[in-house]
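Revision sheet: structure tokens.
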Amino acid sequence: MGDVAVGARSGHDGEEHRGRPVEAADPAADSAVTPGSDSGATEDGTTTQARGGGSGDSTPKAKKQRSFWKELPILIGIALVLALLIKTFLVQAFSIPSDSMQNTLQQGDRVLVDKLTPWFGSEPERGEVVVFHDPDNWLAGEPTVDPNALQTFLSWIGLMPSATEKDLIKRVIGVGGDTVSCSGTGPLKVNGKALDEASYVYAGNTPCSQDDQGGQFTVKVPKGYIWVMGDHRQNSRDSRYNQSDKHHGMVPVDDVVGRAIVKAWPINRWGTLPKPDTFDQAGINDHASASAALTVAPQGVALLGVVPVALWRRRKAAVERTR
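Predicted:
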């Protein structure tokens, strides 16, 4: 087989290179070969042609990007759907309309309310600050707000506190099965245990109000209800002053929207809303422990019945695998 010239033409056509004749170049050798093509020389000197037979550029054209202005409505739509889902199932912002929760919350504060835990069967606990729907016209006579269309839309998707929903915010004092009592100026008692409320009751207020409209009371909270009171005791129309309604001042657990967990606005008042330690004192939960035992007992019996069955099935499966 003859040698093939691989150098560039020098311009002296017909000149021999170091005593060897210059062979005629194959016409295909002068054609540019793009990377990735199937052109090339075989062992016997013949050439193969590129697939497709096309003489144009075989590089695929880049897909044209969608313009920002065409994508913007899609992004806005996704953001609105996410905001609506978050507001419905996770967290919602509420605005504090009055001074009934001072100094814990001030009028105009924005709080974030956890709406997720009630979906998993969690019920309000003593000491928590909760938002709930008006149980039975507690807000009668309160001024109503007439929001514009933009405010209505933003509150509907959860980007702004609702101005029209009739919701209240108070602290849970008693839950189902509790006995709550107030005598004189206090202290407030739950199941016979005096509460130390200095950390959240408005400065200068007494835990109990001395009046004949409801400030002095002893109540038993039914199952499925809570007893609520404002932290500004002498400026809060709460369970005490609604004992003549159809629920006798109690709030149905089903009306609870969720637990207020964070003061989000203004920034200089940002902070969490923890449950005060006084609600965890020894003896206050004694009745709840008995109730929990009754609730858990059927589940325990079911567990005792399920475990032997599960062990029997596993043993049976092991025997079948060894056959």
